[in-house]
Design a protein that fits this description.
With 585 residues, this protein is an alpha+beta fold. Helix content is 18%, strand content 30%. Strand 9, helix 8 and strand 10 form a beta-alpha-beta unit.
């Protein structure tokens, strides 16, 4: 029996009235050693609940597997929430959006063009069922029915914005119930009558997602659902950024005023985000409305708790608002965490990517294979073939590239093609018959919203040179989950423009949070002590990468950069201040 029940206008938990005052905190975007700190700060702001998605694609990287350790140790996260006295809202998807790679759907599933994701297509629902068979047993002890913190579980995610397959939603409801989930189930949809109608289920609580127009949004929710708690399951108080776009934010006083309107109306709320965290590694998603737009590494979201876990302006403003409507702990607001003293890192060693890429190439006698055909969720693919004749001509990539291709002829860079700009053709000068053509294709993040989820990566069709097909490709997957093993050679040409790994060391006394700044560098990936911080790009708006203190160690630390273009510097900087872009106006 569900511990959380509904009345005509509210919730009861074990029979006692409960107003849910929740904040989103994605465990998979926060270093595990920081989970306890972030949960404590959620309680001190006045939250009684935290919410998290569950990313299917990371928990099940291959069919039949389940990863529940490190950054993905969800049972540990739930235990820590319970220790802090917080309830939990779980949102297992299977689709989560979240500006997360592929919306959380596994690449091995969406790579099949015949499968209709987010539908009652049995090929999709069978995969969901097999995943839930593995995922739910270790989570059931943490449900409220077993004395755990999880009081409610979401069915799908904003489905009304995507489809109207009610049979699919009913399948998910039954899949949770038959596997032992007794807790309250809910759906969430944008506060639009059509979305609410298509995305909700009879007998399942409908909730809304919105960031403003509070009275209108709550009225639409009440019109759709005449009885039951009013709940905003995503109260948008900030926003995310795309590479090359503006840095987003929202005035703290404006967001706090809308939070006050929500709570004054008697509604429950889940603040999205309370603490955004970071898209570490290759986990950021992308949008594709008019054009492809990848999301940056930071998921700060202008949230009350900053990307690095310090209380920001919204933390103080929201705490004051919550105190008008619910008890807030009589404890001081946490102080900002100590930062590492500014440090310079000399990158003294280098290793070429084109000549030292490890691993076995996959031959493609005819046309190149996509990254999906090569089984790669993320990372890069290096393609190699030869050009038949010397002279000037046009290289044409049928179907374009997914998502950004750098081209080299006999090792010399000759140009870049970007999906973002819908580029498919490049003029090149070939110095000799048989010249080597290398194409390095970067997956910039899989689309997480709308009908383009599952769009393939890598080279997406035949390649021609002046109309002549190029065949005989070597396709070299470069997952780069970790940098290549050390040592690198001393750098003979530090300002070379070829893609290369750069390595340097730096000393740390006491580890503390810091921010990696790379003036003079162009685009690439960064690792510290093997931990993949994520993507950097001088296109901005983000200018620094967050380095969590637990990534560092006392003594000597390693920094590795994969620089894809060129650098005018041979050093990097660790600073005590983040730079996510110019403050929004």
């Amino acid at each position: 029996m569900s511990a959380l029940t509904t009345t005509p206008d509210g919730f009861l938990l074990h029979g006692a009235p409960l107003r849910i005052i929740s904040g989103a905190l994605h465990y998979f975007r926060v270093h595990p050693d920081h989970w306890a700190d972030r949960l404590r700060k959620a309680r001190l702001m006045g939250l009684n609940t935290v919410e998290t998605y569950i990313p299917w694609n990371l928990h099940q990287p291959e069919p039949g597997t389940l990863v529940l350790d490190g950054l993905l140790d969800l049972p540990r996260f739930l235990r820590l929430a319970a220790t802090e006295g917080l309830h939990v809202l779980l949102r297992p998807g299977p689709y989560i959006c979240a500006e997360w790679d592929g919306g959380g759907l596994p690449h091995w599933l969406t790579a099949d063009p015949d499968i209709r994701p987010r539908s009652s297509d049995p090929r999709f629902t069978d995969a969901v069922d097999r995943y839930l068979d593995l995922l739910l047993p270790p989570l059931l002890p943490h449900m409220a029915a077993s004395g755990g913190p999880v009081i409610a579980v979401q069915v799908e995610n904003e489905y009304g914005a995507y489809g109207d397959d009610t049979a699919y939603l009913k399948h998910l409801e039954a899949a949770l119930r038959t596997r032992g989930v007794e807790e309250l189930l809910f759906t969430c949809d944008q506060a639009d009558p059509e979305h609410l109608a298509k995305g909700s289920l009879p007998g399942v609580l409908a909730t809304g997602t919105f960031g403003s127009r509070i009275d209108r949004s709550l009225a639409r929710l009440r019109e759709h659902q005449p009885q039951g708690p009013l709940m905003c399951s995503e109260f948008w108080i900030g926003w995310f950024d795309h590479w090359g776009g503006p840095h987003h934010g929202r005035d703290a006083a404006d967001a706090a005023a809308d939070l006050d309107r929500l709570l004054s109306a008697g509604a429950s709320v889940n603040i999205y985000m309370f603490h955004g965290g970071t898209n570490f590694g290759f986990t950021n998603g992308a949008n594709h409305h008019h054009t492809y737009a990848p999301t940056v590494t930071s998921y700060d979201y202008d949230a009350p708790l900053t990307e690095h876990g310090d209380p920001g302006p919204k933390y103080h403003a929201f705490r004051e608002v919550i105190a008008r409507h619910a008890p807030v702990p009589d404890e001081p607001v946490p102080a900002p965490a100590r930062k590492l003293p500014p440090t310079t890192v000399e990158l003294t060693h280098r290793r070429s990517l084109l000549t030292s890429a490890a691993g076995k190439a996959v031959p493609a006698p005819e046309d190149p294979l996509s990254a999906d055909a090569l089984g790669r969720r993320a990372g890069y693919v290096l393609y190699r073939t030869t050009l038949p004749a010397e002279g000037s001509g046009l290289l044409h990539f049928t179907g374009g590239v997914g998502d950004r291709a750098q081209l080299f002829v006999d090792g010399a860079p000759v140009g870049v093609l970007e999906r973002e700009r819908r580029e498919e053709t490049l003029p090149v000068r070939v110095p000799r018959a048989g010249a080597e053509l290398h194409v390095l294709v970067e997956n910039m993040g899989r689309v997480n919203y709308g009908p383009r989820i599952g769009t393939p990566k890598g080279l997406l069709g035949p390649v021609t040179f002046d109309g002549t097909p190029l065949h005989g490709w070597d396709c070299h997957p470069l997952p780069l989950d970790a940098p290549p093993p050390l040592p690198f050679a001393p750098d003979p040409a530090p300002l070379s423009a070829e893609p290369a790994f750069h390595h340097g060391t730096f000393e740390v006394g006491t580890p503390a949070d810091t921010f990696l700044s790379l003036p003079g560098w162009t685009k690439g990936q960064a690792w510290i002590n093997g931990f993949h911080l994520g993507r950097y790009w001088n296109r901005g708006p983000q200018r620094t990468l967050y380095v969590p203190a637990p990534v560092l160690r006392p003594g000597t630390n390693d920094l590795v950069l994969l620089e894809l273009h060129g650098t005018t510097a041979t050093r990097a900087h660790l600073t005590d201040t983040p730079d996510l872009g110019p403050a929004p106006h």
